[in-house]
Write a structure and sequence with these properties.
With 296 residues, the chain is of the alpha+beta class. It has 6 helices and 16 strands. The strands form 2 sheets. Strands 3-2-1-14-4-11-12-13-10-15-16 form an 11-stranded mixed beta sheet. Strand 1 (3-9) and strand 2 form a beta hairpin. The longest helix is centred in the middle third of the chain and has 16 residues, at 172-187. The two termini are 28 Å apart.
């Protein structure tokens, strides 16, 4: 068995992205640096990654284009202890409510465990965010529902939309301004529906464009193409120029910049590939237009 990718991580103590890897019970991390060469080749077929630290009992095959990389049974097990699915309402940890900005007119409200810091925001690809409040899980969940209705913002945004707008972001001041405006509307609610157990937090716009490497970078200039799924023997190689959420932006030279969603790498045995390997897997436009799929 080769090393399998566990996806892109944004730990608080690393100051940048890392790739997680596992082989059986062995684990390791690869710290990523912009400007360095990165390449991998898939082998065999894609299999379920299991759930909650447990291997899939049947090593089930999973679709090449799925970002979940879990079979139906392991997917249910993984969701059985999920905060997002409201299956653990008695979680004693402190949670934070946030506003996250991904592009013009594209803001969501959400919650994350306070102990995780801003890692959850970076994992989602939030370009700018501000905290709104902190407190118990159910108070944070209630505030999320109230704010979603009051501000007219969703709690989920399709990832293809986030990726599509990343190539043409406004300047930092405009990005922060949109978040500030919504924060002001949230603060104007006063006590109307705001849970008493939730402490309000002051506005502070945190901008991730720098840590993502996308502030005026050629690595996000469109039009981009994105890997739509790996195949046996397929390779992706290039120079890492940016990263955001689960995405790696690789400058492949003659084939241009290609976006690799690392969630598509999970479940495969991966081996290193040289910088001359290029891209030999299916791709689509970064906005997700499947009709334009093809091979470089």
């Amino acid at each position: 068995m080769g090393w399998q990718c566990g996806g892109l991580r944004w730990p608080e103590d690393r100051g940048g992205p890392v790739l997680a890897w596992h082989r059986g019970r062995q684990t390791r991390e690869s710290v990523l640096a912009y400007g360095t060469e990165l390449g991998f080749r898939a082998a065999g077929g894609r299999t379920c990654i299991g759930a909650r630290g447990n291997a899939c009992p049947v090593t089930a095959a999973v679709p090449e284009r799925s970002t979940g990389a879990r079979c139906a049974e392991c997917g249910r097990l993984d969701r059985a202890h999920s905060v997002a699915a409201d299956t653990i309402p008695d979680d004693p940890r402190t949670y934070r409510v946030y506003l996250a900005w991904f592009g013009p007119g594209m803001v969501k409200v959400g919650i994350t465990a306070e102990e995780r810091g801003a890692a959850r925001l970076r994992e989602q690809g939030a370009v700018v965010f501000s905290w709104l409040g902190r407190g118990p899980l159910m108070a944070a969940r209630r505030a999320e529902e109230v704010l979603r209705a009051a501000l007219g913002v969703p709690d989920r945004i399709p990832y293809a939309r986030k990726r599509a707008v990343r190539a043409d972001l406004p300047v930092a001041g405009e990005r922060a301004g949109e978040v500030a405006e919504l924060y002001g509307k949230a603060a104007a609610l006063d006590g109307r529906g705001w849970p008493e157990a939730l402490e309000r937090l002051p506005f502070e716009a945190v901008d991730h464009a720098g840590i993502f490497g996308i502030e005026g970078a050629a690595g996000t200039a469109g039009p981009l193409r994105a890997v739509s799924g790996l195949v046996d023997g397929g390779a992706v190689a290039g120079r890492l120029v940016a990263a955001a959420g689960p995405d790696l932006h690789l400058d492949t030279g003659t084939d241009g910049v290609v976006v690799v969603d690392t969630r598509l790498m999970t479940g495969w045995d991966l081996a290193a590939a040289g910088p001359d390997s290029g891209v030999s897997v299916p791709t689509v436009t970064a906005g997700g237009g499947a009709s334009q799929a093809g091979l470089f």
